[in-house]
């Protein structure tokens, strides 16, 4: 079987992690870099990502995560937090980075900057938050697939109280909101769901060729 398909068949939403197994620093660094390289709209990456290993913090997060054991048993918890609002500085900081990385004058990028600002700055607060939240899921998908390549288990989770996460992690004062969490680690031999056949729609149901 092609390794791309094999790895995606192997992965599943892990329900029970082995709390004695930890992701190595080397593998974690690979996952972080794969996530950093994720695409995003305009390349702006309007979010911040928290990598949590502190057991005390994980213990606090579990009760506000529907008491799911993955939160306390996984090696790491990755929390994606989207910006709840932004101004021109989001685009300006990005263009400064482009200028420095590609050795292009900032003046030469002004037209692109003005274009981005014309599309984004007039959005309502709700629309801005909705847009930034969507961007976190692109990064989430990249992280999950990179983890599958390394045979590291994951469980994407929306089942938590975002406002409580925001309080525990101090996100609100940073203009951030917890959008999705991803426990990573290694499946427990006791997790029966690892043996279940993967259920997906057939190609005929899911795809239309035009």
Written overview of the protein:
With 210 residues, the chain is an alpha+beta fold. It has a domain at 3-85 and 130-188: NADH Oxidase (3-Layer(aba) Sandwich), CATH 3.40.109. Helices cover 44% and strands 12% of the residues. The chain is built from 9 helices and 4 strands, in the order ααβααβαααβαβα. It has helices at residues 3-10, 25-36, 55-61, 70-73, 89-102, 110-120, 125-149, 162-168, 203-206, and strands at 47-52, 76-83, 153-154, 176-185. A 4-stranded antiparallel beta sheet has the order 1-2-4-3, with helices on both faces. The longest helix has 25 residues, at 125-149. Its cofactor is FMN. Belongs to the nitroreductase family. Keywords: Flavoprotein, FMN, NADP, Oxidoreductase. InterPro entries: NfsB-like, Nitroreductase, Nitroreductase-like. This is NAD(P)H-dependent oxidoreductase.
Index terms:
210 residues, alpha+beta, NADH Oxidase, four-stranded antiparallel beta sheet, 9 helices
- The class by helix and strand makeup works out as alpha+beta
- The first-level CATH class of the domain at 3-85 and 130-188 is given as Alpha Beta
- Report the uncertain regions: none
Write the CATH architecture name of the domain at 3-85 and 130-188: 3-Layer(aba) Sandwich
User: Helix amount, in percent?
Assistant: 40-55%
Q: Tell me, what's the shape?
A: globular
Q: What fraction of the residues are assigned to beta strands by DSSP?
A: 5-15%
């Amino acid at each position: 079987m092609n390794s791309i398909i094999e790895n995606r068949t192997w992965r599943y939403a892990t329900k029970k992690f082995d709390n004695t197994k930890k992701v190595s620093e080397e593998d974690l660094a690979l996952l972080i870099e794969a996530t950093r390289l994720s695409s995003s709209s305009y390349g702006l990456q309007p979010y911040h990502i928290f990598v949590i290993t502190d057991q005390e913090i994980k213990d606090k997060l579990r009760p506000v995560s529907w008491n799911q054991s993955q939160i306390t048993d996984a090696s790491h918890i990755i929390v994606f937090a989207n910006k709840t609002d932004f101004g021109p500085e989001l685009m300006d900081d990005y263009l400064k980075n482009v200028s420095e990385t590609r050795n292009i004058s900032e003046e030469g990028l002004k037209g692109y900057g003005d274009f981005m600002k014309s599309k984004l700055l007039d959005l309502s607060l709700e629309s801005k938050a909705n847009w930034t939240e969507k961007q976190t899921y692109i990064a989430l998908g990249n992280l999950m697939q990179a983890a599958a390549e390394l045979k590291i288990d994951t469980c994407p989770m929306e089942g938590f109280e975002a406002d409580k996460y925001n309080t525990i992690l101090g996100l609100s004062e940073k203009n951030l909101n917890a959008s999705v969490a991803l426990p990573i680690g290694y499946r427990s031999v006791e997790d029966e769901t690892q043996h279940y056949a993967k259920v997906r729609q057939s190609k005929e149901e899911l795809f239309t060729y035009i």
